[in-house]
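Appendix B. Raw example, untouched.
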Amino acid sequence: MTEPHGTDDVNRRQNWRKVLDLEVQRWSSVPCDRLLSELSEVKAYEVEYESRTYQVEVEILENTATYVHVMIGVDDGSLPASISPETHSFICRKPRGRPSD
């Protein structure tokens, strides 16, 4: 018996979400100043998860005086599914200036 149409896509996206969750944990723990230096351009790389390779893209959406808004996208490079990757964004609050002595 064959699986119903779309089951592979659902499983694929569930795996993308697992990888995305790991990457969000990793990047959201990085201080704002390091995010700015590491993400001066879109960062694209591959990671391996459960013996499969996934593509990750990390980019700064906004850099304001008070925060940095970062987006992470994950897919496996398969078409047409990868045209719309799984994404998540987060805000990194910049530290406030120190009060003058």
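End of appendix B.
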